[in-house]
């Protein structure tokens, strides 16, 4: 009898398994490196136990000329052209979503105002699978906000394709109801000289796990990924990125900031940047900062760089997790500011840089108010 040896693990992120077929991904145990932080029992059937139904539809109150929102069949050749699932839940979402929402920005369109799209969940007791495809035409410029609210148990994939010279600011807001669960994969593909700024805001939900990946197809691509998250007692908020530099002369920046308070609040940030051997001239940096406001909260932060060529313009990473700065608090209180207000000012300042990257004033104000409400409820 001949022993069968297990296949060796992939050497780099670029060699990791990718497949549209969920059967290629074994059942999850929680021992896998990419799942070791995630409480699998709280995923409510998103790992494959339940067949599920369609995701809530994307809604809007009106669209300017040059952008359309429609529903297409999964047989549309665009679906799956950007994103090949990296994990079991993403593959399940791809296979079980029967239709996809298509958001199209026509070539040469320059949208003067942000476009706000909304997904509103109504039932956390029903498992749902969804798919969205966003295409931005050649030399088009747009700001798109995707707001996600309500109650859901949702696994979904979002594909974003930027043609040559396109510029997109994509703001995703996960402000789900307290009992919501979401596992989402957002995939960007950038053409020559294309630029994307992604601002990912995560506030609501019982468990939210968001994976963001970036692919460059030509020189000159630029990706800036920003994240803002605030976990209350019992919440699990997890963010992962993979920026795959596979062509020369492209740039990326990843900057995520999170705050935590309350017993059992848990945040996870894992940032992976891969610079392949042919990606000379790459300029990349990633940083994660976490502010722990109370006892009983936990932040895990893991930055990773894989560099296969020495001919880069720059490459670095950083991570910092710390408690509330009592010196800052004392400084403000010494100038007559009450303690509760001083705490709000410190946290507001911690998030200010990221909130200011959102061009929708009403949304900026609402996020600031939501953060202050959380501090007030905790007795800050």
Automatic annotation (TrEMBL):
Domain SUF system FeS cluster assembly SufBD core: 122-350
Classification via Pfam families: SUFBD_core
Family classification: Belongs to the iron-sulfur cluster assembly SufBD family.
Name of this protein: Fe-S cluster assembly protein SufD
Native source organism of the sequence: Phytohabitans kaempferiae
Gene name, Swiss-Prot/TrEMBL: sufD
